[in-house]
TrEMBL record:
Predominant cellular place of this UniProt entry's protein: membrane
Key word Nucleotidyltransferase present: no
Key words of the record: Membrane, Transmembrane, Transmembrane helix
Protein's cellular compartments: Membrane
Originating gene: LOC115740293
UniProt-recorded Gene Ontology molecular function terms: transmembrane transporter activity
Family: Belongs to the drug/metabolite transporter (DMT) superfamily. Plant drug/metabolite exporter (P-DME) (TC 2.A.7.4) family.
Name of this protein: WAT1-related protein
């Protein structure tokens, strides 16, 4: 039994390691001069190529009919989740650090909860413990994000890494100005989480009408490729800027597309089916820890008090929201079971009354 439960655990840890690697390689690619819009365009192109086989093979017989309203919803998903989200994220990462980017990514459940309230997919339930946990967690997440964005404080002296990656050191030395705009970076990273949260709202409605996740992802990435290419061409006119001759640029684009879009999506889909959505959500803070260690070890990133305290607050708020949501789901399941049991009892009572009535009629007939 232990070995069965161990596989989802290992899978989700590897997903977080994969995303941490994307933050490092993408930061290095942009420090080398790669335009964030170009990087996002290549990512979506490679993601489309990677997900096409899954859509064609796994959903060939089960795929529902693709109608105009479905295409419109997929387009909205591509606009929010595959265009705005990664564009804001990579531009924010380019003006920030991988650690801050991962820390602000943990406000996603809180932002999603806010949008779900606005679109009436969630209830506030402030009188219940679950509702209070979600509200308090959301406020703590936002507070941690603001602290992390606007206050850095003194540097935490943890020493220097003994690992010396010459290429990373060269990029760090040649592009010291890429350390970040500490207002623009966090603001865009917050906007990225907001766009991602909107994607969850739209995707929740789409998945009920069109239960074909691989086809949806392929079409979404394909549409996003066109959207990103159009905007990137307007922003970056130089042909040389689109070159992938540089090793780190090619690795970053292919890695982000194949590993972090195709493979990660398949693995997380499998884990959601095995363990549920909450199980996959609780691993997101692990990404922050892994990225902070890799950034310190490979990119010589410095850690500040504000970054540490803000990250702790965001993680605390995240688990508060997740705890509230989990408790709410359990209460809903109990209510459903009680309602089903009540209906069964009512059905049994009606059957007994019917039998009693039938036996009574038979007795009178025999007496006559």
């Amino acid at each position: 039994m232990g070995s069965v439960d161990f596989m989802p655990l290992l899978a989700m840890v590897m997903v977080q390691v994969g995303y941490a690697g994307m933050n490092i390689t993408s930061k290095l690619a942009m420090d080398s001069g790669m335009n964030p819009f170009v990087l996002v365009t290549y990512r979506q192109i490679f993601a489309t190529l990677a997900t096409i086989p899954f859509a064609l093979i796994l959903e060939r017989k089960t795929r529902p009919k693709i109608t105009a309203p479905i295409l419109l919803q997929i387009f909205m998903c591509s606009l929010t989740g595959a265009f705005m989200n990664p564009v804001f994220y990579f531009v924010g990462l380019n003006n920030s650090t991988p650690t801050i980017a991962c820390a602000l990514g943990n406000i996603l459940p809180a932002v999603t909860f806010l949008f779900a309230l606005i679109f009436r997919q969630e209830s506030l339930g402030i009188k219940s413990k679950a509702g209070q946990a979600k509200v308090i967690g959301t406020l703590v997440c936002v507070g941690g994000a603001m602290l992390l964005s606007f206050y850095h404080g003194p540097e935490i002296g943890i020493g220097s890494s003994a690992i010396h990656w010459k290429y990373a050191e060269k990029m760090t030395d040649e592009h010291p100005t890429k350390k970040g705009n500490f207002f623009l970076g966090p603001f865009l990273l917050f906007a990225s989480s907001a766009a991602w949260a909107l994607w969850f709202i739209i995707q929740a409605k789409l998945s009920t009408k069109f239960p074909a996740p691989y086809t949806t992802t392929t079409l979404m990435c394909l549409m996003a490729s066109v959207e990103c290419a159009a905007v990137s061409a307007a922003v970056e006119h130089r042909v040389a800027a689109w070159s992938l001759r540089s090793g780190i640029r090619l690795i970053s684009a292919v890695y982000a597309g194949f590993v972090c879009s195709a493979v990660a999506f398949c693995v997380m889909t499998w884990c959601v089916q095995r363990k549920g959505p909450l199980y996959t959500s609780v691993f997101s803070p692990l990404l922050l820890v892994i990225t902070a260690i890799l950034s310190w070890a490979l990119l010589r990133e410095k850690l500040f008090v504000g970054t540490l305290v803000g990250s702790v607050l965001i993680i605390a708020g995240l688990y508060s929201v997740l705890w509230g949501k989990d408790k709410e789901v359990k209460q809903a399941n109990i209510a459903e079971k009680m309602e089903a049991a009540a209906k069964n009892r009512e059905k049994e009572d009606l059957e007994l009354q019917f039998q009693a009535h039938g036996n009574g009629g038979d007795g009178q007939h025999d007496h006559n």
